[in-house]
Amino acid sequence: SSGKGKRLLGTCTVTRIPECPQESPEDQQRSECMLGYVPVIYYSILLCVGVPVNILTLVALSRLAARTQKALYVYLLALTGADILSQLFIIFVGFLLETAVFHREVPQVLLRSVSMLEFAANHASIWATVPLTIDRYVALCHPLLHRQISYPARARRIIAGVLTLALTSGVPFFWWSDMWRVSSPPGILDSALIWAHVVIIYFLPCGIFLVLNSLIVLRLRRRHRQRSCQGEGGQKVPAGAGRLGKTTAMLLAVTSVFTVLWAPRTTVMLYHLYVASVYRDWRVHLAYDLSNMLAMLNTAVNFFLYCFVSKAFRGVVRDVIFSLSCVLETRP
After folding, report:
1. pTM recorded for the entire structure
2. Per its record, what are the GO molecular function terms (predicted)?
3. Fewest beta carbons less than 10 Å away: which of 141, 149, 162, 329?
4. What are the per-10-residue average pLDDT scores of the chain (332 residues)?
5. 122 with 33: CB under 8 angstroms?
6. What is the pLDDT of residue 8?
7. How far is 207 from 127, CA to CA, in rounded Å?
8. CA 267, CA 277: separation in Å to the nearest integer?
């Protein structure tokens, strides 16, 4: 049977009746989808849960940003907005509409345009976390400098620049080849795009997260040792010195979850490039589908991380839900 692949997700689709009774040798060698309707159900649930949850996160963070005037919430707002774009372009437009609903061939130009938008949204979602990480590093390791340079207006300019670069980086992926449908081995352009993608979405941001988070943890440990020495010497210790703050804990949680959820997809893409093709090996096909499902989960988990770490965020979410319920009750 034949079906349509997905450019960024690359996942299997609903089986349909072949238009031609005779399959070509290439079709006979194509790897089968082992998950059936599971991806359709999974992405539908992820979309139905993830988008409302991210909208709720957006409203709560907007209230916190207006209340506190902290640059932190500007960065978190940008991250949440980019996650919503990823869910709409990659899951809704790219997968559910393009492959699971239409059930027919889509014009190549439209496919490539959607692919470009998917990669742009994906890159924006990931790189929105980088300024947040840098801001936390400066706040903990260079507090005096942080007071001078960290304010909402500057954060908005930084986010605008980062998102512009991230969206522009999606343009070359207009020529991205669909791993599930292309039977030929990856060429020079395919290899260049795959490497560019894994560097942009994983190796480079994870490298930044690893270095800066390590420096943050080392600084906190050093402060903790100094606090212990001062306590033993009878000196007064500043409150909270050496402790892991809520904001830092939130940052470490967000970056750690991203690193874990995106690692399988990065591994499978490089395996496809150098070892076995998604098109021909059902095991690689299955691993690719599962790794994409894990990666897309990253767009919906931040709300729960914020609720777990931040009491202030939980309080605002509770107020938003209460206000919404009151509005609904007053309607005739």
Report:
1. 0.83
2. G protein-coupled receptor activity
3. 329
4. 48 41 48 75 92 96 94 94 92 70 67 87 93 93 91 95 93 82 75 94 96 92 76 54 71 93 94 79 85 93 92 93 82 65
5. no
6. 62
7. 12
8. 13
CA angle 205, 188, 128 (to 5 degrees): 20
pLDDT of residue 19: 40
**Residue tagged 């965020």 (tokens):** 313
CA distance 232 to 226: 10
Per-residue HEC secondary structure of the chain comes to CECCCCCCCCCCCCCECCCCCCCCHHHHHCCCCCCCCHHHHHHHHHHHHHHHHHHHHHHHHHHHHHHHCCHHHHHHHHHHHHHHHHHHHHHHHHHHHHHHHCCCCCCHHHHHHHHHHHHHHHHHHHHCHHHHHHHHHHHHHCHHHHHHHCCHHHHHHHHHHHHHHHHHCCHHHHHCCCCCCCCCCCCHHHHHHHHHHHHHHHHHHHHHHHHHHHHHHHHHHHHHHHHHHHHHCCCCCCCCCCCCCHHHHHHHHHHHHHHHHHHHHHHHHHHHHHCCCCCCCHHHHHHHHHHHHHHHHCCCCHHHHHHHHCHHHHHHHHHHHHHHHHHHHHCC
Tokens at 300, concatenated: 């919906």
Pick the CATH number of 56-174+185-321 from 1.20.1250.20, 1.20.1070.10, 2.30.40.10, 3.10.310.30: 1.20.1070.10
Is residue 300 within 8 A of residue 49, CB to CB? The reply is yes
Question: Residue 319 is encoded by which pair of tokens?
Answer: 């107020």
Q: What's the rounded Cα separation, in Å, for the pair 119 and 171?
A: 8
> For residues 290 and 264, is the Cβ–Cβ distance under 8 A?
yes
Count of alpha carbons within 13 angstroms of residue 298, beta-carbon side: 28
**Nearest CA to 140 among 255, 243, 259, 257?**
243
